[in-house]
Amino acid sequence: MTASAKVASALLLLGAASCLPHPGGARGQAIDLSHGGQITVTAAGGFDWDQKTQTVTAYDRAQAVRGNVTVTADRLTAFYRRKAPPPGSPAPPSQSTDAGSGANEVYRLNALGHVHIFTDTDQAWGDRGVYDIDQAVMVLTGKGLKLVTPQDVLTARDSMEYYSQTRMSVGRGDATVTTNDGRQIRADVLVGYSAQSSPQPAAQGSQPLTGSGKLEKVNAFGHVFVRTQTETVTGDRGVYVPDTGIARIVGNVHITRGQNQISGAAAIVNMHTGIATMTEHPGGRVSGLIVPNEANPPPTGTHQ
């Protein structure tokens, strides 16, 4: 097959990928390739089409676009399959798995090298990426992992996952969420949940912008670290609600302000005021080190 034929076949395959059903309709979602019309792929280095593995690979400044979602990488590989007939319809006659036929659909996209996936509002970076279109799940690995929304920035060392259907983001390995007003929480694993977003108004004849949902809650697991303007708080687990600015940290909790330190089983951190308060169950104890000349000793009271 000539290079031009490969290009034509690849473009036809990806353009023929059907809109997959999406739970709850086609409301705006951040970084969601599971719906939104045709997938268009371009590349400076051309395409390879492998009928045995049913893949099409684009090389050199490869780009895939579906609706308002764009994926760029050094190499993109699209996995395709025979499209299932609608329920109740007669089975189609046997056909070859020709990438140029309209009976195929793309169900997975692999990206390798300088991966960047973005919408009008959200962006994510990594070295390697996999997008499962059936499940609407993106997984990024490699160095410099980052997911940026208008409200916050999530970074991680080992991997980053985004689940479009549940609007859940997961950072693994020294994961950090930093809000746009400077509040920060860090842990071995961070799980963030965002609110349902709606598409923004668009000009006539154009597609609506893909909106980003507001961060509603962050669950933190392992070596939790919270920093305020005056204190640092560490513990085993935590829950942070950005709207209230309140974080609850439990398990081997330590509050540090300057040279002052107190320890206990649980703490409430007000990220708006920068004040952390140790809390205990009835009969619990709080221990600490208070330096007399420290200008702002930490609160030592408990809440029963």
From TrEMBL:
Q: Name one Pfam family in it.
A: LptD_N
Q: Which GO terms describe its cellular component?
A: cell outer membrane; outer membrane-bounded periplasmic space
Query: In terms of domain of life, where is this protein from?
Result: Bacteria
Domain Organic solvent tolerance-like N-terminal residues, every copy: 47-156, 160-274
Q: Please state the span of the N-terminal signal peptide per the UniProt entry.
A: 1-21
Q: For the region Disordered, what residue ranges are annotated?
A: 81-101, 281-304
Biased region (Pro residues) positions are: 295-304
Q: State if Transport is listed as a keyword.
A: no
Keywords assigned by UniProt?
Signal
One example GO MF annotation: glycolipid transfer activity
A GO BP entry: lipopolysaccharide transport
- What's the name of the protein? Organic solvent tolerance-like N-terminal domain-containing protein
Organism annotation: Gluconacetobacter sacchari
